[in-house]
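Bit of a strange request maybe. I'm writing a small parser for C-alpha cell strings and I need a real example to test against, not something I typed by hand. Could someone generate the C-alpha cells for this chain?
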Amino acid sequence: MVADAVTGAPVAGWIHQFGGSFGNPGYPRSFATVGGVTYLAGGFNLLAGQPVGNIAAFASSGAVISGCQPMANGQVGSVEVTGSTLTLGGEFTRLNGVTPR
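Reply from user aminoacidic:
Good idea to test on real output. This should exercise your parser:
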C-alpha cells in the first residue's frame, strides 16, 4: 500500500495483496522508480492473486504492469534501475529460467 505523505490516507490504486509460499504472507523489501514505473522486489510469489516471481512493476497509477514481470526463483533483496537496465540482488539462482552470471 502507498499512503499520502501528509494525511497518511491510502492512495487509490496502490493497495495490493501480496502472497508467499506455503500460506506465508509475502512482503516487499526494496523498490526503485524510473520514468513513471516502480519496480518492487522482495519475497512474494502472488500479487493480487496473480503469480509473480518476487518482482513486480507498477505504473504511476498503481496498476500492475503485467508485461514486465521477471521471474526470480528466490527472494530479491534489492532493485536498481540505471538507464534501461534493471539490476537485481538477492537469494535467487535463476532469473526467467536462466542462471545469471
